[in-house]
């Protein structure tokens, strides 16, 4: 089985892994008795960027963590609902957490490369963690391909053996993107990936995302309304009323959500009146 997994990985190194739709159905989430999401349904279309917007505390990060089974790592956490990746529920009995993790990658707000580890080893770190084996030659190809896709190759090709922690914040975030895509996820979740970055680095990451969207379905949480409009095709507005679990008020094409929102709360939020 290991042999087959390895052959498969080798054979598909250079080609996109196939575009996948992620379909969240009636997702509810709790921390202990505290319900934080109530029956959230959202289709994140294959090969497109979906932006999740909304005030702090309305459950966006929780929703993202449910999409790659990180939520269940939190001891007090529970959930209900289904997450279908190309029609298959990632929570089905018999499906492993590690498979969900490999299929659905995550990039966090604060760039988190292994700081003392070399740039090269950072990129391939995810391969090892997800149990994929690759020869030195394969790894070299994966490192160059992933760094190129993350828009970082030209800047680091001559210093792959230097520590990841020596890079600038924006470069570190692109290194984290490279590490995520090295294992060829079908979906990439990004939780406020540019919040800790300057505007120039932010624009570089946005361009990287727009390129990546050709081969991986992307879901991004952002508080930057310009960013949502620049990168996303679809958008969902999350809101939690006082003391209530979060939910989606409105979702649809980003252009329509910003240009002609249906709900007055959406209009208030996208125009900064919250
Ligand atoms: P957002 O990302 O939209 O700011 P979160 O998903 O982080 O929202 O949080 C949603 C709700 O869940 C908040 O009330 C928050 O306090 C709570 N919450 C988030 N993480 C935990 C946790 N690990 N334990 C308990 N409550 C949590
Ligand atoms: Mg959050």
From TrEMBL:
InterPro entries, sorted: AAA+_ATPase, ABC_transporter-like_ATP-bd, ABC_transporter-like_CS, P-loop_NTPase, PstB-like
GO cellular component, one term: membrane
Phosphoprotein among keywords: no
Gene3D superfamilies: P-loop containing nucleotide triphosphate hydrolases
Domain ABC transporter: 22-270
Keyword flag Amino-acid biosynthesis: no
GO function term, MF aspect, one: phosphate transmembrane transporter activity
One GO biological process term: phosphate ion transmembrane transport
UniProt-recorded name of the protein: Phosphate ABC transporter ATP-binding protein
Source organism (scientific name): Lacisediminihabitans profunda
Keywords linked to the UniProt accession: ATP-binding, Nucleotide-binding, Translocase, Transport
């Amino acid at each position: 089985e290991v042999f087959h997994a390895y052959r498969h990985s080798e054979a598909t190194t250079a080609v996109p892994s196939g575009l996948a739709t992620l379909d969240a159905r009636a997702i509810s989430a709790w921390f202990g008795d505290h319900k934080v999401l109530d029956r959230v349904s959202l289709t994140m279309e294959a090969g497109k960027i979906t932006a999740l917007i909304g005030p702090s505390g309305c459950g966006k990060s929780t929703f993202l963590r449910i999409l790659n089974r990180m939520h269940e790592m939190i001891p007090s956490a529970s959930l209900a609902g289904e997450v279908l990746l190309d029609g298959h529920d990632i929570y089905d009995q018999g499906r492993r957490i590690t498979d969900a993790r490999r299929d659905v990658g995550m990039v966090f707000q604060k760039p988190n490369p292994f700081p003392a580890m070399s740039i090269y080893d950072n990129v391939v770190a995810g391969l090892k963690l997800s149990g994929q084996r690759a020869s030195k030659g394969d790894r070299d190809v994966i490192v160059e391909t992933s760094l190129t896709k993350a828009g970082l190759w030209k800047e680091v090709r001559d210093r792959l053996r230097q520590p990841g922690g020596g890079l600038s914040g924006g470069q570190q975030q692109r290194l984290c993107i490279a590490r995520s895509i090295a294992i060829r996820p079908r979906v990439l979740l990004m939780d406020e990936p540019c919040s800790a970055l300057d505007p120039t680095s932010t624009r570089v990451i946005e361009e990287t995302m727009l390129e990546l969207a050709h081969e991986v379905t992307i879901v991004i949480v952002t508080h930057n309304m310009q960013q949502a409009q620049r990168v996303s095709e679809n958008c969902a507005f999350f809101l939690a009323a006082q003391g209530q679990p979060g939910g989606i008020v409105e979702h649809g094409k980003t252009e329509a959500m910003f240009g002609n929102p249906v709900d007055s709360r959406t209009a208030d939020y996208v125009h900064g009146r919250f």
